[in-house]
Design goal:
Layout lengths: L3 E5 L4 H17 L2 E8 L13 H25 L5 E7 L2 H8 L5 E5 L13 H9 L4 E4 L9 E5 L7 H14 L2 E8 L10 H25 L5 E7 L2 H8 L5 E8 L7 E2 L2 H9 L4 E6 L1
Parallel strand pairs: 1-2, 1-4, 2-3, 4-5, 6-7, 6-9, 7-8, 9-11
Antiparallel strand pairs: 5-11, 9-10
Length: 285
């Protein structure tokens, strides 16, 4: 099966950033890129209604032009990279998720052409992510020079092998350090008399993290690994860390009800709306 990165592209500023990120991700992976552009067909108001053929043709041609422009940009930037266009009609989120069913990575912009300036995450991007069955990266945050850091938000009690594997592989591809962060709200241990208990709890958590991470670090020995147990509200702490990261990796459980897609939890949901760097969401059992 051909390995590929799928990118949803609509020529918006957010779409342009997603296109550029998809090119970088494909170059690191030595994979092909498929530029996907969606368009809506217009339903008539009644059985007697009529939609001129040239209108529908014009909508399709506009979508073709957008996708072709994205393909040409990638080919100019990455000569020799296999790049193709795919234009899809209908419910955009469903079609993009289906196009990316077997992809290595799906890359989405934070907002589409129709998004309001104050919208934190576009409705199409959010719905696409919840329908996706492959790792999905939402490109958001302040554009800046690379910091050389990938952050992995990890739950020590339910870490997920898929999540750890993706984070180590991504750090290795970027030649970046991997900072694994586990956040606990330790308000219960603020009393000076509980300092020893608090330190013991942190040491136990760190030891458990090391046991989880060691097999993956053995597979990626060149990755510089840092493990942090931090105190505070998890969503706030992790969001703050994105100001100095190139990427934050978080997990989302597969729906498990016979349908494809993921169910982002509250922490992942917060990162998707407030992180100051791209967010990679990895589906997991």
């Amino acid at each position: 099966m051909k390995r590929t990165v799928i990118v949803a592209y609509d020529q918006s500023p957010s779409g342009d950033r997603a296109l550029a990120q998809a090119g970088r991700e494909a170059a690191w992976r030595d994979t092909a890129v498929t530029v996907v552009t969606g368009y809506h067909t217009v339903a008539v108001a009644s059985p007697m209604g009529y939609m001129p053929t040239d209108f529908q043709t014009g909508v399709k041609e506009a979508a073709d032009k957008i996708a072709d422009d994205g393909v040409q940009w990638l080919r100019n930037r990455y000569p020799g990279m296999p790049v193709e266009a795919k234009v899809i009609a209908g419910a955009t989120a469903d079609a993009i998720a289906e196009a990316a069913r077997d992809a290595d990575l799906l890359v989405l912009g934070n907002r589409g052409r129709g998004g309001f300036t104050g919208l934190l995450l576009g409705s199409v991007s959010m719905r696409t992510l919840t329908l996706a069955s492959c790792p999905t990266m939402v490109v958001r945050g302040t554009p800046r020079e690379p910091a050389g850091t990938v952050v992995l938000a990890l739950d020590v009690e339910d870490p997920g092998e898929e999540l750890m594997g993706f984070a180590f592989a991504e750090a290795a591809l970027r030649n970046a350090r991997l900072t694994v962060v586990n956040v606990w709200d330790l308000d219960w241990a603020r009393d000076d008399n509980l300092d020893a208990v608090r330190e013991h709890a942190i040491a136990d958590i760190r030891s458990a993290l090391d046991r989880r991470l060691n097999p993956w670090h053995a597979k990626h020995p060149d990755v510089h690994l840092a493990v942090e147990v931090m105190d505070g509200a998890p969503s706030a702490v992790l969001t703050g860390l994105t100001q100095d990261a190139d990427l934050i990796v978080a997990g989302a459980h597969r729906r498990g009800d016979g349908h494809l897609g993921m169910r982002p939890g509250p922490i992942t949901h917060t990162l998707l709306h407030h992180a100051d760097c791209p967010v990679a969401v990895v589906p997991r059992a």
